[in-house]
Amino acid sequence: MHSKSNDFTEGIKGLEGENEIKINFEALVYLSALFIPILESKEESAIINISSGLAITPLALFPIYCATKAGVHTFTQCLKYQLSKTGIKVFEVLPPIVDTELNMEYKEKRGTGNRGIKADKCADAVIKGLANDDFENIKPCLENLKQLPEQI
Questions:
Q1: Catalytic residue among 30, 65, 81, 106, which?
Q2: CA angle 33-39-45, nearest 5°?
Q3: For residue 142, which of 65, 78, 55 has the smallest C-alpha distance?
Q4: Which fold has domain 8-151?
Q5: Nearest Cα to 24, choosing from 54, 57, 1, 4?
Q6: Residues with Cβ < 8 Å from 20, sequence gap 6 or more?
Q7: Tens digits of residue pLDDT in 71-99
Q8: DSSP assignment of 9-47, as one string?
Q9: What is the pLDDT of residue 138?
Q10: pLDDT tops 80 at residue 100
């Protein structure tokens, strides 16, 4: 998913072509509803939702992305509670800014380049968190988010 900044001072024009709400939030809700009955029939199963550190510390340039990830965060917490008496584990991964080529045009324009943790370090932390039943896998992420306020 390629996030783009949304400028609400442009009115509706700032939302042209946006599918982030459907992709980041609605799809996750519908897929959960479709798969939970199947997962309930299994001895062990898990739902792993990918949120973002921006659900906790939003970046003003990406209000829709941040809002959808905050929605994922809240939905996952509710789902975890609702499924607590089933065999379904519910995990949330809240990655920080990960050093990838995603949004490179925006990064170059702002002069920020690649920053964040390396993708392999993030993946290792997620796998370790899943293995340890760390249901809200945010620990490897917070130190990276502390850099953001000056960017808002």
A1: 65
A2: 125
A3: 55
A4: Rossmann fold (3.40.50)
A5: 1
A6: 1, 3, 64, 65, 68
A7: 999 999 999 999 999 999 999 988 887 87
A8: GGGGGGGTT--HHIIIIIHHHHHHHHHHHHHHTSSSEEE
A9: 56
A10: no
Please give the C-alpha separations between residue 37 and each of 7, 46, 80, 150, in angstroms, as whole numbers: 40, 12, 15, 45
What's the one-letter identity of residue 23? I
- Lookup result for tokens 């509670």: 81
| Catalytic-residue membership of 81 | no
Question: Which stretch of DSSP H or E encloses residue 66?
Answer: helix 63-82
* 141 CB-contact burial (10 Å; exposed 0-12 / middle 13-18 / buried 19+): buried
DSSP 8-state secondary structure symbol assigned to residue 139:
T
Segment 118-148, tens digit of pLDDT: 888 888 888 888 888 877 765 545 555 545 4
What is the C-alpha separation between 18 and 3, in angstroms, rounded? Answer: 9
Place of tokens 């659900």: 55
Task: Scan for tokens 């519910």, then name that residue.
Answer: 90
**126, 84 contact by CB (below 8 A):** no
